[in-house]
Amino acid sequence: MNYLPLVRRLEAVGFRAWPASSVQYDGSWQVRLTAGHPSKRLNSIVPLDPADHRDVEIRLEKAQRKFEAYGRPLVVRETPLAPPLLMDLLRRENWQCFEETIVMVCDIAHLDLPDTLDHLPSHDVGRYVDANLLVDLADPALKPALAEVVSGIKPPSGLFVIEDAEAGPVATTLCVQDNDLAGIMSLSVAREFRRKGFAVEILAAALRWARTRSAKTAWLQVTATNAPALALYARFGFHEAYRYRYWRPENGA
């Protein structure tokens, strides 16, 4: 079965769901750069055609200069669409593969969602960003960049926050609905509130919202080593569509 059309579609909606501030094309290679935010998804080369392997050494050198101008390390994101000749070159030159992510999908049209407390999404970007940074224990200095990314999402999106009366935000996620596809982005639960049902609650709320807006399929991305998240998503019926990996030069930061 040829699954590359699905990969292409999920890659396209993924780009729209987490937009980089600068997107340039070198042939079919998408060069994504974002000066204010260090996310690898926002700062990487993403080749999108297995047959586009001309002058790979020259194109990597050209991309290197662009990454240096943005103060970012050179990173290649390898999906099933990456040219095999490019990946062979990276291995020969001792590039390091340093993270693997699983892209998962789920048919939500007839999914029996858990009976949990529902939450309506907010459209207050500032509130969501503040909550997400607190839940993730992230650097508050990232607020302007994260707000710019979230504000730049073009498809309809729902910003979900669960709060505790005393502790404040305890769980966050972002659901981006792109026609019949709904992307679950950045699902996080505060460390001290994990294993208390908040992940199930907020994921169910986001999927209900997407389904009421006629989404048929949900997708998400999760690090391959995140066993608790993988177990959660399997409980909801998510299954693997494909994987991608990040590569950096041997002397990369």
UniProtKB/TrEMBL annotation:
Gene Ontology molecular function: any one: acyltransferase activity, transferring groups other than amino-acyl groups
Assigned keywords, A-Z: Acyltransferase, Transferase
- CDD domains in UniProt: NAT_SF
Key word Acyltransferase present in the record?
yes
Instruction: Name all N-acetyltransferase domain ranges.
Output: 115-253
Cross-referenced PROSITE patterns? GNAT
The record's SUPFAM superfamilies line, in alphabetical order, gives: Acyl-CoA N-acyltransferases (Nat) (SSF55729)
List, alphabetically, the Pfam families matched. Rv0428c_C (PF24553)
Name the UniProt record assigns to this protein: GNAT family N-acetyltransferase
Biological source species: Rhizobium tubonense
